[in-house]
Amino acid sequence: VWSCVFSPDGKLLAAGLGNGNIGIYDTATWTRIEVFQGHQQAVTSLAYSPSSQKLLSGSNDKTARLWDSETGSTDLILEGHSYDVKAVAFSPTGQQVATASNDKSVRLWDARTGASVFILAHSADIVTSIAYSPAGNTIASTGFDETIRIFDTLTGLLVMESCKGGEWITCLTYSLDGWRIATGSSGGRLQLWEAAVTTLECGRKWAAHTSDIASVTFSPDERWIASSSLDRTVKLWDSRSGLLVSSFVSHTALVSCVRFSPNGSHIASASKDKTLRLWEVNSSSLGLDSYELPDQQLCATYSPDGRQLIAGSQRRPMRQLDADSGDVDYIFPDHMHDTHCIAFSPDGLQLAIGGGGEEVTLWSVISRSASFVLSGHEFPVDSVAFSPCSRWLASGGMDGTVRLWDTRSGAGHILIGLRGFVQSVAFSPDGRWIASACNFEKLQLWDVATGKLKADKKIDIGRLGENSVAYKPGCLQVASCHGDGTIRLWD
């Protein structure tokens, strides 16, 4: 994912991809609703019109495109650059757009006709970033010549420029009041500039990242600055003091773009690790929670035919996704959240759902309703598993019990003999045995027919950490995975 941008009305999130496509997401559900196709190479930059009705994209195919954001049709193709288009911007009036390229030029275009208005004489070096002032009467550009230049958008003339900063300036953005400009550099430094009437005054400068800064943006209330870098991190800063508020390290490759949502509640980050991530800003604690689209997932399972994926999270309802496209096909009722574990029955007709509510829900896939709500556990349920015939369901919980349920009647009974939180349960391929793992260094084996404990194995791994068990398909070997980083195979 090379670029991303929220629409001004907050309803859409666009993501530019390396294959030339643009994915459009509905921010109400975080589902992908459209794919715009047209560019032949990576989409490096995106900008919405102030009305949210148009989307501007720049690409390594040397062109920029203006799209109808509702239909996905291409209204205009802006051609003229001789190298990759690296940055695009919409004027606040929506009547003009700007593009910057590795051909060392900035071009201004009429957004209605696509006619070239000005070619701005930036410098003899590559232009990396452009931004319109909030009033729209000027546009700032910067690049490898270490200088910020500000041009009049009505005349195309240079209004002012900064002194050289000693490092390549890789990105810039205006504050919403137009009085400050934030820049990021190749040395990993952020700098604030006072954009006065006739001069650019150097402001606070600080070391922000360990490598090149790829993107920088102000929050809508100008309280925060978010930055992303080749060092694979996204960081949130206090825009007045320059103090670090939070740092996020979930990406595994350079983070090429970072943007605030219009209401400031989310930060979107696009990375070369092929992910688009959303960070939820928690203003009360000044911390952030992160989750990949569509949500922060605690558990997930495939349907037996592999065509569907069911994902559960702590704060949002469960979702059913198309396993090929990732599109959300169904959102479960609102009360079905705080989901710790999910299992599909082998016949594909039922789901077992356990979570923080101390109950297990048997869910009919066909009717999309609960067949049974199984009560008995006294603490959250962390593991569920169906027997191969789909008749029986095993559940394990933090109350230290494994329970066996009849999926036809909902009747259940407890398996006695455990101590500690049950973290994982699994049926043997022949359905005769249940294996369980708990946090107190125990692996146990149960006879399904009698409910009696048949084997109790202590493992010297320490009490801390997660433990999990699974049967090898087609045989009676059990694999166990432990918090000390080991995997063991048992007969």
From TrEMBL:
Annotated keywords:
Repeat, WD repeat
Q: Does the keyword Plastid apply?
A: no
The lineage's top-level taxon is Eukaryota
Which regions are annotated as WD repeats? 36-77, 78-119, 120-161, 206-247, 248-289, 332-373, 374-410, 415-456, 468-491
User: Which Pfam families does the entry mention?
Assistant: WD40
Q: List, alphabetically, the SUPFAM superfamilies matched.
A: WD40 repeat-like
- InterPro entries cross-referenced by the UniProt entry: WD40/YVTN_repeat-like_dom_sf, WD40_PAC1, WD40_repeat_CS, WD40_repeat_dom_sf, WD40_rpt, WDR55/POC1
Report what the protein is called.
HET-E protein
Give the organism the record lists: Linnemannia elongata AG-77
